[in-house]
Amino acid sequence: MTNPHLPRRALLGAGAGLLAMPAVLRAQPAAVRIGVLQPLTGALAQDGDLGRFGAEQAAAFINANGGLSALGGAKVELVVADARSNPEAGAQEVEKLQGEGVVAIVGGFASPICLAASQAAARYDLPYVVDVGVADQITARGLANTFRFAPGFAAVTSAAVENLVRLNDGAGKPCKTVVLVHEDGLFGSGLARLMATELPKHGFEVLETIPHPTPARDMNNIALRLRSLRPDLLIPSSYYGEFVLLARTMRQQRIRPKGIYAVLNGAASNYRFVKEFPDAALGVMDCNHWQDPKNAEAIALKAAADTAGKFWGYNIPLNYSCVKLVADAVNRAGAADRGRVTQALAASDYSGHIMPYGPTRFVNGQNQGARPVNTQVQDGDIKVIFPSEVANARPVFPIQG
Amino acid sequence: MFPPALIAEAAVNGLLAGAAYALVALGLTLVYGVLHIVNFAHGALLTCAMFAAWGLHAAFGLDPYLSIPPLALAFFAFGYALQRWVIGPSSHGDDGNTLLVTLGLSIVLENALLALFRSDTRTLGGDAGFDVVEVGPMLLSRPRLIGFGVALLTAALLWALLSATDTGRAIRAVAKEKLGAQLVGIDPRHVYAVTFGLGCACLAVAACLLLPTFYVNPRVGNAFVLVAFTIVVLGGMGSIPGALLGGLFVGLVESLGGLFLGDSLGQLGIFVIFILVLLFRPTGLFGAKA
Amino acid sequence: MKARDILPGLLVLALLALAPLVASNAALNFLLSSLIVALAAQGWNLLGGYAGQLSFGHAAFFGTGAYATAILQLRYGVNAWAGLAIGVALGALVGWMIGFLSFRARLRGSYFALVTLAFAEVLRILANAFDLTGGAAGLLIRMAPGAANLQFPSRATFLWLVLAIVAAVLLLTAWIAGGRMGARLVAVRENEDAARALGVDALRVKLGAIALSGGITAAAGCLYAQNFLYLDANIAYGTWISVEVLIACILGGSGTVLGPVIGALALHGAGEAAKIALNGIAGPVPGIDLMLFGALLILAVAFLPQGVMGGLRRAARGLAR
């Protein structure tokens, strides 16, 4: 039996349903899309994977805690793009992300990728938050859409020198002669040049600056020179593989300086290195990006990484913090509008991140509070030794044996 | 300037490194000499071999030196299969196409390794890689000394195989005169595959020797490829003693160049030799007259 | 040059010129990158496809063009268009020099290929070491959008510019191929000794080819620099571009007018297609899409040994029967 006319009850029900719908719509506001650009394949895939993990954890955290309050509890949705470890692919992915309607992009990791990608984003006034890329040009360029959450070269170098001086003075100045070993790419060469200029001003003598290519097949010559120069302090800035080679070769050649003070080193504050070479790693110091070790969220994040079987690296907390920073900016802007988000970032004073930076404050796109910390490998773990506000261990310097 | 003892030790280190390079180049020169193809996949194959050696160690605790026989055999078979059923048929005998096919192969292999092992850099744990042997004032790495010996041995074995066995004669025949060899009943496809297999077996040996002192990630083979090409050209394409001596020479130049110019600019030394040899003596030290 | 040589090419380019009407910015950017590679490949094609001298080191010309225009703009305040012209001239000069050294030494085949590779690597190491080229930090061209500075924020405008240049080179290639120079190139490629015996000055022909080739690829380098505004030694002189132009030409059909363009588009297209097709899996498992791409390459060579153009020609002949 069919009734061609809808019964009144059904109509009333439908009407009530229609009235109720705005409430339903309100309860599910459109998700806010944030782009995550990381080198997921190619030479930098290891770090890219960590960056993505950090971003995903941040999104999960935000969504589990009510989403974006000013937008009615809107969820954060990440759009992950693979920069393929080269700047051209990075720029291409930015075009795609822009087409997907993201409100901002986070990441890049390597300086050349960050440079190309942030510039591509600038064409659309799409805010771009750099996670790691340290080249000073990234913010010195003067692009209004580009923000860097972490420190750049200049900040890292001055902190490294300052902390080294403090370290040395605190131990009674045991170190005077220094040898710089660096990879011959953008970050290694830039760093070495700055250090070679700054260190002599504080009474250190730079015996030699030794560049090496990446990849390097052999570190024996460098070890030989170290053996003949006998510096008090070795300052290495290399990627993971090369530093591992150097550390092993040094042990082989029985070269034991009073301290190994790495800066932005790929292995010195890397848990894989500590686990696989406990003897070579003992006492090695690094001046690098690191999370606030006393922050509860940071500790939870590290536990999550351990459960997921990831080796911890700074790209995790940095991307975690950047995604939270952007979400906060969207919240302050009150809408998923690029222009307003850019303004919100520029005026941001966000403290909900997990890095030891204090509240954010961007001047010309650079977060002023951003700074590296000093770590040291002690008891098979990586501890923070400077600055004292975030330290969870005392430095052991000079290293014995 | 540097003290003579330092220069001497750098020279010795260079020779030790050069032996490893020579082993990597052996496979390449053999393949070029017989198949007349430049094998773009050489680096990726070396990476595969290094992962295999690392894997055996990680899974069964097998010492890399003990892995040499099984891996050499396994990679011989792998190389044979690759040439017989992938590279050979796809190229239709055209050099340009072979380049593309080996390039495609290298992309497939490298990314397969990336998919399986991720991009983490791995090393052999433990202290075996640290052992040194004291020779006068010099501290020489034991694994590299062993590597030197095994490289020489492998080169000698390969040379013996080529000159004294029937297979070797068949290979040389096909290299010199393919049509003639076919006429006397030699199957060039089989010979090509055997040659490629031998080249891969050499890579397997090189991988086992490199692993204790080096590291492994999906891109590690690339570091050795250009050097291998230089050695092949220097020693003469197709010449085994040439590859060995060329390897030692290049290792020496790299080490001393690195000492005097810094490791980065020192790489120039290798390419300058490369260019000079090509311009003035392209057949290399021991190659056949062009 | 006959109409049938250039019409298919011009048709393809005209279709691409209409792309901005329907395509997203991401697609336009993709086309732009592919066409810059296509231009570089057109350069390679003259030397490798027509003259038969396979080069593994075209990065040497690409990087020279890129660095030339960047250095001229940054240190000498030269206008970007002039930088492009000078970059092309320098690329041709470097080509001539490499050719002079190599061809005089009678290097052929794999030997020539390897020496070009070595030259490119030497340039890369030098560019990484010296301040003139910015050393390891590279060079950053100042962002100043505007036609006068050869900087186009609009993807469509830049695309049309590159299309125009590709079309011009297409016409140039067809004109050369159809004329006496083309005949000499082919003669040298097929049998250099016989060509010499017939009175062809093989050295001059090859030098001309490599100079022209260098200039065209250098133009691609200049445009690349203007697109990204940042370069370092690995971007400019890295092996990636040498390999891409090589693949593009062989895949598309070397020694044909349209081959490099089709090859570059097919190459990049296959890469993107592989990425999109495997997007679901490529997330947790890196590298799968590139594996597919490598496999596609092998299959393409196996079943299309004369490249896409060769395959099309065979199909056309088949249809005509």
TrEMBL record, chain B:
* Lipid bilayer topology: Multi-pass membrane protein
> Where primarily located?
membrane
Domain of life, per UniProt, equals Bacteria
Q: List keywords of the entry alphabetically.
A: Amino-acid transport, Cell membrane, Membrane, Transmembrane, Transmembrane helix, Transport
Q: Where in the cell is it found?
A: Cell membrane
Q: Which Pfam families match?
A: BPD_transp_2
InterPro entries cross-referenced by the UniProt entry = ABC_transp_permease, BCAA_transport_permease
Transmembrane residue ranges: 12-34, 40-60, 67-87, 99-117, 145-162, 191-211, 223-253, 259-280
Q: Which family does it belong to?
A: Belongs to the binding-protein-dependent transport system permease family. LivHM subfamily.
Quote the protein name from its UniProt record. Branched-chain amino acid ABC transporter permease
Kindly list the organism's lineage: Bacteria, Pseudomonadati, Pseudomonadota, Alphaproteobacteria, Acetobacterales
From TrEMBL, chain C:
Q: Where in the cell is it found?
A: Cell membrane
Q: Which residues form a coiled coil?
A: none
Q: How does it sit in the membrane?
A: Multi-pass membrane protein
Q: Does the keyword Nucleus apply?
A: no
> Where is this protein chiefly located?
membrane
Record's keyword terms, sorted: Cell membrane, Membrane, Transmembrane, Transmembrane helix
Question: In terms of domain of life, where is this protein from?
Answer: Bacteria
The membrane-spanning stretches of this chain are: 81-103, 156-177, 245-270, 290-312
Instruction: Answer yes or no on keyword Secreted.
Output: no
One Pfam family per UniProt = BPD_transp_2
Q: What is this protein called?
A: Branched-chain amino acid ABC transporter permease
Could you tell me which species this protein originates from?
Answer: Muricoccus vinaceus
